[in-house]
Design goal:
The chain has two domains: 2-39 and 96-138, FAD/NAD(P)-binding domain; 152-263, 3-Layer(bba) Sandwich (FAD/NAD(P)-binding domain), CATH 3.50.50. Helix content is 30%, strand content 23%. The chain contains nine helices and ten strands. The chain has helices at residues 14-25, 41-45, 47-64, 80-90, 97-105, 160-163, 180-191, 202-208, 221-224, and strands at 2-10, 30-34, 109-112, 116-117, 122-125, 128-138, 172-176, 195-201, 232-237, 243-250. The strands form two sheets. Strands 3-2-1-6-5-4 form a six-stranded mixed beta sheet, with helices on one face. The protein has a four-stranded mixed beta sheet with strand order 7-8-9-10. Strand 5 (122-125) and strand 6 form a beta hairpin. It is elongated. The two termini are 39 Å apart. Bound molecules: flavin-adenine dinucleotide (FAD). The site of flavin-adenine dinucleotide has 26 residues, from helix 1, strand 2, helix 2 and helix 3.
Length: 269
């Protein structure tokens, strides 16, 4: 079975959604195909939930800075409100109904499924071939990469997708990868009381080290360069969430045993 459209948008993350919405609103016959959630990584697993997490950890850090500056403070972290806000206010419990309706109200045709190119101008999904008379837009984005570390797939681990869904925090967390996202999540969880450790290749850390928002005790990028891309650098956060001054190159550790760690599941309501 073949159906025709002016434009087919494959993947409706922030990029694809914007293109599909705009073209549909301008009167083109648009088919939008999405395998997961309309809106993609940013609203459900990326920018928005992580910025809600950062908002929470920044408040904790600010509260802890009151002594010596503006009086006394006693700060007790509670992850519950953060998890609730992400689930209810940001992601609607990881439900994209509102986004689908918004697209359909603009005149778009929404198809849930994994699309595949099926020849020039053609995309197949769910046994139907859609043929585009004007264009196919490929906006399939990215998904978390799981590195080929022996044994990793045999233990429970999170990617960013599980990290934003967590309702109860573990007591310790090892973070593999010290780019912007790894360090952002390390700072968040540490400020909420989790003992965090980031493991990273030195060359990676030296090019992608952001400044944690505390701005305190942050090593300069050159501190991270150890001269060998295979030497790992390890950064520990104290439970209150500020990075320790001790940043050291270390031999790869034999094992990492996080405590109190479980894979989050989505709760309803
Ligand atoms: C933890 C985290 C924090 C971030 N924080 C920020 C931030 O603060 N600020 C910022 O600007 N950016 C941030 N980003 C980056 C931002 O999320 C991405 O840049 C953005 O989501 C990219 O949008 P996209 O539309 O290109 O791709 P995506 O959001 O990846 O969307 C692609 C969509 O295509 C779908 N798809 C893939 N293949 C198919 C197929 N064959 N058929 C149908 N559908 C398919 C996927 O399901 C997905 O929904 C963050 C990312 C992460 C992971």
């Amino acid at each position: 079975m073949t159906e025709r459209a002016d434009v087919i948008v494959l993947g409706l993350g922030v990029g694809g959604e914007e293109v599909a919405d705009t073209l549909a609103a301008r009167g083109l016959n648009v088919v939008g195909i999405e395998s997961n959630l309309l809106g993609g990584e940013c609203p459900y697993y990326g920018c928005i939930p992580t910025k809600m997490m950062v908002r929470g950890d920044d408040l904790l850090a600010e509260g802890r800075r009151i002594p010596g500056v503006a009086g006394e403070s006693s700060v007790t972290p509670d992850w519950g409100p953060v998890a609730r806000r992400i689930r209810k206010e940001a992601t609607d419990n990881w439900d994209d109904r509102v986004a689908v309706e918004r697209f359909e109200k603009k005149g778009g045709r929404f198809v849930r499924g994994t699309g595949r190119l099926a020849g020039p101008g053609k995309v197949s999904v769910n046994g139907i071939v859609y043929e585009a008379t004007r264009a196919i837009v490929i906006a399939t984005g990215t998904s978390p990469a799981v590195p080929p570390i022996p044994g990793l797939r045999e233990v429970p681990f999170w990617t960013n997708r599980e990290a934003v869904k967590v309702e109860r925090l573990p007591s310790t967390l090892a973070i593999l990868g010290g780019g912007a996202i790894g360090l952002e999540l390390g700072q968040v969880f540490a400020r909420f009381g989790v003992t965090c450790c980031a493991e990273m290749a030195s060359s990676f850390a030296s090019t992608s080290m952001p400044t944690p928002s505390s701005g305190k005790g942050v090593p300069s990028p050159s501190t991270w360069t150890t001269g060998s891309r295979f030497v790992r650098t390890r950064c520990w956060w104290q439970p209150a969430g500020e990075p320790t001054s001790a940043i050291s190159a270390s031999r790869p550790s034999a094992s990492i045993r996080p405590r109190g760690f479980s894979t989050p599941t989505t709760t309803s309501g």
